[in-house]
Amino acid sequence: MSVQNSLGKGIDQPAKGIALICLALLLFSTHDTISKYLSGFYPIVMVVWARYVVHTLMMLFIFIPKSGLSVVRTKRPGMQLARALCLIGTSLFFTTGLRYIPLAEATAVNFLAPLLVTALSVPLLKEHVSRSQWLAVLTGFVGVTIVVRPGGSLFTPEILFPLASALCFGFYQILTRQLSGIDSPTTSNFLTGIFNSLIMTALVPFFWSTPTLSHGLLMIGLGTCGMLGHLLLTEAFRHAPPALLAPFSYGQILFAGMYGYLIFNHTPDIYGVVGISVICLSGLAVAWGQRKR
Question: For the chain, which residues make up each domain, given as ranges?
């Protein structure tokens, strides 16, 4: 779940930016909690379908009256489709993983994405990565190894789902960076929602299970949390620079741990806490290196 930065000239309200990104991360964690809950009752395809359809309908309601069809015009339709497929892969893999992996641990593993972006930026973007940044990437993978240590309860094939999600999200962020100077963030996110809604709508009849009223409302809440979270995240970057806000993104793991304890009665063991801390520290090291550059 990432939004391109739409930076204005008035980036001079850091407190407001921090507050907005924290609220966005709380919404993202709420989204993941609802996904985990609903995945216990409905096929994954149906849960992901509800998320994208509600998200896209809300964007239609908000942006089309104001911007018209110009909001969906793109100069790189192929890249936009690839970006959408990466995000739908992230959603499918991560939501599937939530069926088997506790919320905090799955979220922490998914936060390998910034480290993967650092590694992938060398062959794909021809960027220079320092030794310290490579060390941070390797340290992040050590953190995952601690979380899913051999012999531990998470050392199962299912841990591959959040790992695959992180890989897809890494490619999604790479494509987001490449498109940032071509299309507006609104266009990119709108097209992602449209593409993924169409794809999931084509698949959902094969997995359909009529939801109850309460679960139907949760599905609406799922898309609403995702949509509002993206809007708030974009707005946060209008008030504070990415280098300042990047460390706060790891607060999502704390929110995930809170929901995991309150809703699913799960608390990470000591190895999980150490591994999650190592992942966070390695991600912060990468963010610090980018800030220095």
Answer: 14-292
Digits of tens for pLDDT over the chain (293 positions)?
A: 443 333 444 556 788 888 998 999 999 999 999 999 999 999 999 999 999 999 999 988 888 887 777 788 898 999 999 999 999 999 999 999 999 999 999 998 898 888 888 888 878 777 777 788 788 888 888 888 888 887 777 888 899 999 999 999 999 988 888 887 888 888 888 899 999 999 999 999 999 999 999 999 999 999 999 989 888 887 887 887 776 777 788 889 889 999 999 999 998 888 889 988 988 888 777 777 666 65
Convert 2-16 to b/e letters by CB count within 10 Å (16 or more is b).
bbbbebeeeeeeeee
User: Are 136 and 286 within 8 A, CB to CB?
Assistant: yes
What amino acid occupies position 199? I
Contacts of 7 (CB under 8 A, 6+ apart): 237, 238, 241
Q: Are 143 and 279 in contact (CB under 8 A)?
A: yes
* Residue 169 vs residues 9, 72, 126, 289: alpha-carbon distances, Å: 29, 22, 19, 21
The three state secondary structure string of 208-237 is CCCCCHHHHHHHHHHHHHHHHHHHHHHHHH
Does residue 46 contact residue 204 with C-beta atoms inside 8 Å? yes
